[in-house]
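A protein record in our archive is deliberately plain, so that people and models can read it alike. The tokens are whole numbers drawn from a learned vocabulary of local backbone shapes. For reference, a complete record is included directly beneath this paragraph.
>
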Amino acid sequence: MIKIIKTFCIIGVLLSLLGLSACGSATPTSVPTLDTNPLRTEVAKTVLAQVTRNLARTPSATPLPSLTATAIATLTSTPTQTASALPSATITLSTATPVTGTVNLAEWVFQSIADNTIFTPGATFTMTWQLKNVGTSTWTPAYMLRFYSGNSLSAPKEILVGREILPGETVDFVLKMKAPTNIGSYQSVWVMATDTRSNFKQPVYLTIIVATAVAPTPTP
């Protein structure tokens, strides 16, 4: 590029010199007119040839390789596995009567004679226990309240329920009892049982005191 500029500068100088020669002071003597056209033509050809040689020597710019956009691999998302909904279990409550003996539980509710009640020797009394069925089984009429330990206080050893007792229902067991003739403290333990005499785990009991009545002191 610098060589080309120098060449054009030389051309400019030559043309300026030719112009000055043509504009020189006129003399009275008639001078034959110089035809400068052939000279200008030769100069132009020389300059053009020089420019052509310079351009031929000037290395052409090597075109840069075009950048080919490399396609970026598209990330293929792995399909998310959707958990299949499991079929929900349907719980059907049975309306049938609970099977006997599944869960036998009894709960004390009430008793008519309080513990540590004092009786005279041989006194009779009525004892009532009210029990509640808090299990899942139905007490059949053959279920019973049976004597377990201590002193039976002259009551029958087994008292049948006599009817079906559904879960949540209560039943009263009424026993005729008699205090022992000897003075002292006595305990009577009873327990619910199935028709096969399989005892429940919740016993009930009564504690009494047998004492001699104190005779009143005679007034003098």
Notes: Confidence is low (pLDDT under 50) at residues 21-32, 58-101. The first strand starts at residue 106 and ends at 111. Strands lie at 106-111, 117-119, 124-133, 144-150, 158-160, 170-178, 184-193, 199-210. The chain has two helices and eight strands.
